Amino acid sequence: MKAAFPFHNLVVAAVLAFALCDAAAMAATPEETAQLDALFAELQAEEAPQAERAEREIWRIWSHSGSPAMDLLLERGRKAMEQGDLEAAVAHFSALIDHAPDFAEGWNARATAWFNMGRYGQSVADIQHTLALNPRHFGAMAGFGVILETLEKKEQALEVYRAVLAIHPHMQSVNEAATRLEAELAGQEL
Description:
It is built from eleven helices and no strands. The protein has helices at 4-20, 24-27, 30-45, 48-62, 68-82, 86-99, 104-116, 120-133, 138-150, 154-167, 172-189.
């Protein structure tokens, strides 16, 4: 699928844009922005157990839209996904996105549902929206890396995984994936 390459460039651009301007702050309150900044600093500095706590707190903040009705749609979509009803999950997340298009976690949740349905193109499109709204969204970036790896785009997947680790160096699954791909790619070069 050639669509992954242009999006790959967007991921790299989003990561670089983060270094210059925190677009996530546009959607967050000043208090949340300060909290997120401190939590992201903890991800960089802390050992793995403390980083896990910071990651949980980041996800908690990301999961609150500021509207109880929108948060309920997110919760219902997540429950539907847990129960394996991916069509219902997509419906809930789509309603959420329709009513709160600036809520990055709605896009990310639907990207996950699309991925679980094997609909990678739609997942990538939603990941693109997620990262446009929140360039530090390490979950969306990691998901994109998994899609690239699934599509046998190993070099591009590794580049995305490295970008994730620049944000969240303690993300175990991404560390393992990056190590595995580095070994595979080094073996290919020999």
